[in-house]
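User:
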Amino acid sequence: MLLQACKAKIHRARVTQAEPNYIGSITIDENLLEVAGIVPFQYLNITNLSNGAFWRTYAIPGKRGNGDVCLNGPPARHFQVGDIVIILAEVLVKPEEMATLDPVVVFVDEKNKITEVKRHSAVAHPLA
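Assistant: Predicted structure:
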């Protein structure tokens, strides 16, 4: 049996483009993908803090260093330029691997430039 888990998170990225006529996926700056450990065509969950929308699609690399976060195809109707999103990368793990899973969290600024990278275990809960 395998369990579905979060491998990485890009926290509070800003949507830079929405292309409804593209065939689908999310285009993400290659720097962000690399630091988060996300590979092209890996499934991602995208949550929109601006309107609560949730979408599942796959990653494609954008131009390195330009801050791309572009929703392509149908999600372009739910994610608009300027929306703040959380991007979650999925992984399948054996139950015994859950105890050592420590997802990477990539923090970005308003231009999607990396400001900090932490392991999830080092991110303090606001109520702690």
